Every structure is written in structure tokens, then in C-alpha cells.
């Protein structure tokens, strides 16, 4: 008796390859979805930590929230010099270095800040895809040619103080008056912090907020993220974290997303940016 081994025919091979290709086609999107879900979970965890840090800070500072800082990148040196600036103040609540320390250490060593390029820290949302080649920078260059740097994937809501500052007649970035937790009547709707957009491409090319500069550590709705199913996450004054679509988060009470809406109020019923008055552009 002879022993014959039957070989695959060309048709059988083509069918097998087609099946494998089909399975890969089904598997890759599923893996991508799982990966994005994991990133979103991590980002929500980071935001919860920032929210708890805000409450901890307020509990030992006469019910006062930390300073949101000037939103202008050129003022970052002044911001970081202030221990009440939220990336300095809240870092101690979480047992990590203040951002002033992180930025200065990188400058002295003439390298990028620690949390650049997707580092696993509370400063970073792992789902934030960047198109820049380096972090945001400010000030004069060091001996190696690098300026001081910063990079945030989260921002404090700088409209929390808006009405108080206007009533006091002081500039937007003033520390003369500070919002307190007692000022917040609807903690479940008032935003403390949220995911910042990492690149303009998170929004459609014709979006009215697409070209808003993103070099911020504090911001409002115009820089709200859109990387998770066209939306982003926020931590609220009561400590919970929720997702809102970018369009929903950036539509004012008048039903418009246009920044120049006359008397536009971005306290839109679902989200509160200024707990003491209308959130103006």
C-alpha cells in the first residue's frame, strides 16, 4: 500500500486566505474600539482624580478653588510661579510634582517636559493624538536652544470666576477674587475640568471652533475635546465624570455655536460654565 498526502488545491487556498482576510477585517476594528474604550476609561479616571484634588484643595483653603491662571501661553511663566495655579496646587493633592517643577527641570536639562509624547501620567489623556513635533513653549531659549515648555490634555474651566471678576471690575486672570464651592448651586452640572483638544483635526474643517488656539492650561467650550465619538469628558463639581458630544457642549442657550452670538450664554441648561451668571464668549 502506498501512502499519499493530499495537497490543497488553488481554490481551497484562495478560500482559506479570503476567510483569514475577512476575520482580520472584523478583528482590527474591534481591537481599535477596545483600545479607544481603554483610553477613555483611563482619561475618566484621571479626571476623577483631578476632581477629588479640587475638593481636597478647597477643604483646606477656606472653601476656595485653585487659580485657573491666565489663558495666554505667553503668561505661563507667571502662572507657574504662582503656587495657587491649579497645575501646581492640585499636583500636591495627587502626590506628583508640581508643573512648575516639571517645566523647570526639563528646561534646565534642555529636553521636553516629562509628560510629552504620550507619557502615562495624570496630565495625559492616552487617547489624545497630537500632530505637533514638540510641546507648547514660552520664555527665552536655554543653552541648548529649547524654551520652557508645557503640555496639558486637561484644562480647568476658566469661566468659573467670570461673573465674580466682572463684578469686581478686575482683569480676567486676576487673583483678586476667587470662586468658592459655596458659589456653586448646581454641582452636578457645573464643570470643574475637561479634556482639551490636542489638535485642530478633532473638529471638522468648517467647525466655528476648529481654529481656536490650543496652547492652554485653562479654557472654555471653544477648546472642548472631540476625540471620543466626537465628544469629550468633563469632571463636575459633585465629582462625577460624564461624556458630552462636542456639539452639545459648545451650543449656547440661544441654540447657536457661533462665538459672536449677541449676548450668547454658554450655560445651556445641561452644562454650567459660570455658576454665578451667564457664561459669555
Structure keywords:
single chain; 281 residues; alpha+beta; 5-stranded mixed sheet; two-stranded antiparallel sheet; 7 strands; 30% helix; 10% strand
DSSP strand content: 5-15%
Read across the widest sheet, the strand sequence of neighbours is 5-3-4-6-7
How many helical stretches? 6
Mean pLDDT: 93
The share of residues in helices is: 25-40%
Euclidean distance between termini CA atoms:
90 Å
Beta strand count: 7
- Uncertain regions spanning at least 5 consecutive residues: none
Strand count, sense and closure of the main sheet?
Answer: 5 strands, mixed
Structural class: alpha+beta
Which word captures the global form? globular
What assembly state would you assign to the polypeptide chains in this entry?
single chain
**Number of domains as seen in the coordinates:** 1
The SSE string, one letter per element, is: HHHHEEEHEEEEH
Radius of gyration: 23 Å
Descriptive account of the structure:
The chain is 30% helix and 10% strand. The mean pLDDT is 93. With 281 residues, it is α+β, with helices and mostly antiparallel strands. It has one domain (45-249). Strands 5-3-4-6-7 form a five-stranded mixed β-sheet. The protein has a two-stranded antiparallel ribbon with strand order 1-2.
Question: Brief description of this entry?
Answer:
With 281 residues, the protein is an alpha+beta fold. The chain has helices at 10-59, 76-80, 86-94, 99-108, 162-168, 246-249; strands at 136-138, 148-150, 154-157, 191-195, 218-219, 231-236, 241-245.
Amino acid at each position: 500500500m502506498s501512502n499519499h498526502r493530499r495537497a490543497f488545491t488553488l481554490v481551497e487556498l484562495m478560500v482559506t486566505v479570503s476567510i483569514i482576510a475577512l476575520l482580520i477585517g472584523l478583528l482590527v476594528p474591534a481591537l481599535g474600539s477596545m483600545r479607544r474604550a481603554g483610553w477613555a476609561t483611563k482619561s475618566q479616571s484621571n479626571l476623577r482624580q483631578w476632581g477629588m484634588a479640587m475638593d481636597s484643595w478647597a477643604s483646606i483653603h477656606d472653601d476656595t478653588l485653585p487659580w485657573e491662571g491666565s489663558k495666554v501661553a505667553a503668561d505661563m511663566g507667571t502662572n507657574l510661579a504662582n503656587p495657587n495655579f491649579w497645575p501646581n496646587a492640585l499636583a500636591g493633592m495627587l502626590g506628583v510634582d508640581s508643573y512648575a517643577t516639571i517645566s523647570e527641570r526639563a528646561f534646565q536639562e534642555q529636553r521636553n517636559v516629562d509628560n510629552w509624547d504620550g507619557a502615562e501620567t495624570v496630565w495625559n489623556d492616552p487617547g489624545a493624538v497630537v500632530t505637533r513635533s514638540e510641546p507648547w513653549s514660552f520664555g527665552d531659549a536655554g543653552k541648548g536652544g529649547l524654551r520652557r515648555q508645557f503640555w496639558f490634555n486637561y484644562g480647568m474651566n476658566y469661566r468659573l470666576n467670570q461673573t465674580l471678576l466682572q463684578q469686581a471690575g478686575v482683569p480676567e486672570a486676576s487673583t483678586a477674587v476667587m470662586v468658592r464651592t459655596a458659589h456653586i448651586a448646581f454641582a452636578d452640572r457645573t464643570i470643574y475640568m475637561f479634556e482639551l483638544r490636542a489638535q485642530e483635526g478633532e473638529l471638522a474643517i468648517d467647525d466655528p471652533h476648529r481654529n481656536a488656539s490650543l496652547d492652554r492650561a485653562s479654557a472654555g467650550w471653544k477648546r472642548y475635546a472631540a476625540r471620543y465619538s466626537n465628544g469629550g469628558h468633563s469632571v463636575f463639581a459633585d465629582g462625577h465624570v460624564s461624556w458630552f458630544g462636542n456639539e452639545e457642549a459648545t451650543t449656547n442657550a440661544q441654540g447657536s455655536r457661533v462665538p459672536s452670538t449677541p449676548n450668547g450664554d454658554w450655560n445651556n441648561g445641561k452644562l454650567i460654565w459660570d455658576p454665578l451668571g451667564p457664561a459669555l464668549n
